[in-house]
Each structure stands twice: as C-alpha cells, then as structure tokens.
Amino acid sequence: MPAIVKTDLSDEDAYVYVIETNLLQRSFAELLPSEKAAVLVARYEKISSQGKRNDIRQEIEALEETCGHDVHKSQKSRDGLGEEYGMTGRNIARYMRLDRLIPEFKDAVDKGTLAMVAAVDLSYLNVKMQKLIQQVAEAEGKKLKPKQAVELRKMGKEITKEAVESVLAGKEQKKPQSVSVKLPVELYERYFGQMDAGAVQEIMEKALEGYFGKEAAGV
Questions:
Q1: Which one, of 29, 30, 28, lies nearest residue 42 by Cα?
Q2: According to a count of CB atoms within 10 Å of the terminal CB, is the N or C end of the chain lower?
Q3: Is the pTM of this model over 0.90?
Q4: What's the confidence (pLDDT) of residue 79?
Q5: Residue 112 and residue 128: Cα distance in Å, rounded?
Q6: What is the CA radius of gyration of the chain?
Q7: How many CB atoms sit inside 10 A of residue 40's CB?
Q8: Which one, of 196, 216, 185, 177, lies nearest residue 208 by Cα?
Q9: Where are the alpha helices (DSSP H) in 99-160?
Q10: Chunked in runs of 10, what are the mean pLDDT values of the chain (219 residues)?
C-alpha cells in the first residue's frame, strides 16, 4: 500500500490530514456523527490556511490517484456548507456543537446511546460539568434522555453530583420555600422592633401589594 510518512506535524496539520483522507476514502454520509462534526468544524473555522489545505489535498490525491471532492474548493458559510452536504444550516450548526462534547459523549452519539438533541444541550456545558454528568450516568448505568439534558443545561454552574443524581432519578428540583432579605438593623427596629415574625410578614406582604399595585396602575 503506498504511503507517505509525516513527522513533526502540528496537531492542526495532522488533523487536516485525517479529515481530508477520510473524505477521499469515504463519502460524508458514511462518516460517524462525531466525524461529521469534526469535518464541518474544520471547514467552517479554517483550522489551517486554505493554501496549506490545498497542498495537503494535492499530496493525498496524488497518492490515491483521485480528483478529490468538490466540496473542498472554497470555504463557505454554514448555509453554504448545508447546501453542499444536503443539510439545512440548522443541522450543520447542531453537528458542529457535537465537536464540543467530551470523547465519552461523542462515542455515545456514534453508538446511538445518546440522542443528538440531548448531545447538543450537553455541548453547552463546560468539560468539567460534562465529565461529572458522564461519570454519574455511567456509575448508575443510566442513559441521558433529552429532557434530562435540557434540565442539566439550565442548571449551568449550579450542577453538582447530587443535582445530576436527582435529575437522572427523575426527581423535580425543589424550589426554596423562603428567601432571606437583609435590612439595616436601625430600619428593622424602627418599624418591626416590637413585632413577631408573623406580623412582620403580613405587613411586608401588604406593603409590597400596595407598592406594585401602584406601579402597575402607573401612579
């Protein structure tokens, strides 16, 4: 089998070789979801200069004795890429999100154990959060459902091991029954110093109702 051995390549150059070789040997439709994501991101973001990509393609094409793919002729917008691959711009964007997943989630998408729509939501979380979710799900032997991925995405920075376990268990997140509001001591003593907590709450409710009632009426 003819081959070219390349050494001392940067990660970006090596990545381009892998992508271009895959597309020369296999059609885009045959690629796994994570591979499609890598191809689209590379095309969209121009990992390396177009001139360098052309040099690499020519080298590979000479080795494979093929003319290559027309889709490489120019860098286009997301919608333009969609037209080339027979996909909508929205689907292009969804696939590109997959490239932001940790390897474990990419593998799950490729195997079909993680739905695309769930993967897209998880892609908005940082690597640390994704790893936490993946570890909890694996430990409990559970698959992430789209609805659960949406809940986890909404949590953002508030994601904890306990929160993930709760979501996977199908438990609803309980909202706090009360909220603490701080008042200066002098203000509190002036108006509420001789009252119990129940009376203070009642006055606060009436005061707020009166205030926001006037605001709504434009008074």
A1: 28
A2: N
A3: no
A4: 61
A5: 23
A6: 28
A7: 25
A8: 216
A9: 103-111, 116-122, 127-140, 146-155
A10: 76 68 70 83 57 52 44 45 70 86 94 93 94 94 92 89 91 62 84 83 84 59
